[in-house]
Amino acid sequence: MLDTTIGAGSAQGATQLGWTGVVRFLHFTPRAFLPMRAAEAIALVAGRGIEGDRYMIGNEEGFYSHKPEEGRQVTLFELETLVALKRDAGIELGPEEHRRNVTVEGVPLNHLVGRRFWLGETLLEATRLSVPCRHIEEITGKAIFDPLINRSGLNCRILQGGIVRVGDTVRNAA
Amino acid sequence: MTARPITTVKTIVTGIEEAGAGTKLFTLADPDQWELPPFKPGAHIDLHLPNGLVRTYSLCNEPADNARYVIAVKREAEGRGGSRALHDDVRVGEVIGVSLPRGGLEAGADIARCVFVAGGIGVTPFLSMALHLARTKQADFKLHLIVREEVPLAAQLGPLIKEGRVVVHRTSRTGRPDLAALVGEGGSATMVACCGPEGMIDDFERVTAAWPAANVHIERFIAAAPVLDPDAQPFTLSLSRTGTEIQVRAGQTMLAALQEGGIDIATSCCGGICGACKVGWLEGKPVHRDRILSPYERERYLMACVAGSDADRLVLDL
């Protein structure tokens, strides 16, 4: 699926701000350990999280809920990392397996910490980089901890909520 | 902060049915019927029972049936208490935490024929495998079920018995069958597996001793002892601020031992890079396995998720 998705046209329209990306996959799950379910659209609620997701504030049932963090209302992951994982480490990881909510293409996630950007009609603030964790290795049974160091996604706070759809544009708000 | 990480899959008991031979089938599902973590045919899960016991059972539904876990439990009056608790105390609607599924059988692409030998309730993992193979037609298979008289899970096995895929051997009528005759000739395209009482498994091991090891699988009722690093040593953690002493078992992480001892330690990556579980140490000889602390920092701190000890006692600044 990745091979047909990557390069289907998104990051071509670089703006004067340096990048424009696109939403490729959306996923959520209501509780820790359960498989992530793909969606064509998800609802982001400002200051709280994704409707139905395990880390929606006030309804947290995720693996890390014992340390609530309002900067983790929605998480993003680079499609390019999945491609690199297959190419460099021979590990095929599906977009539902990294357990972040939004898989984007053409977005330099590691450079966005502390910045604001538009995800479709929603406005996000990047709070910190995600770190790989043994928990995901346990769930997937794949040795992805080391290959994901420094490219494990981005945690964000939702400043302006709304609906995010597959195919939406991601762009800098600076 | 007293909250703990969620370490089990939350399920509720959605069905309990009699399945013959003192056996009950328990169906576990997500409270909202969400799909459950995937599993291989005949994988195991640990049930964290309401009375605190943790017991391991084979899944007997097939992996494509991904919204439920079905286990078959025979009540063992003289057992260690898990089956009694399930039979006597657990009701529909009860919340039970389960581990992620592990293990299970998977016939590789080169396997054309599978022969399963089960003793009594040992049929459970093979029911899952049989249902999987019957649906996918991945390989031809035959399941030999050896019972004294009554067939457990008769309703579930019925269609497969009619098709001749499951052959029931009743020892009360015909005596014990010759296992060598049941498994037949070995070969790289044949996989054999056995689950049942220890005596049966010992015999099975003997008759398959010359088979390629990768083609022979054995499932025991009692889980095998975990494989430990032969160099791993137990040690004692001494917490300087409270005087508490905590034992770290061989092969156990320091973090797990601290959490088991009721010490609240933040965690995140559990792989020695995020620093969430960084704690100070005062005496001893830590073995640092993290990837972020500088040599200077290692003189004062360690990462509890990956660090070990090269001495019997390690004093932490906790």
Automatic annotation (TrEMBL), chain A:
Chain ranges passing through the membrane: none
**Start and end residues of each MOSC domain:** 37-173
Q: Which domain of life is it from?
A: Bacteria
Please name the source species. Bradyrhizobium symbiodeficiens
Q: Which Pfam families match?
A: MOSC
The protein in question is named MOSC domain-containing protein
- Which GO terms of the molecular function aspect are on file? catalytic activity; molybdenum ion binding; pyridoxal phosphate binding
Q: Source organism lineage?
A: Bacteria, Pseudomonadati, Pseudomonadota, Alphaproteobacteria, Hyphomicrobiales
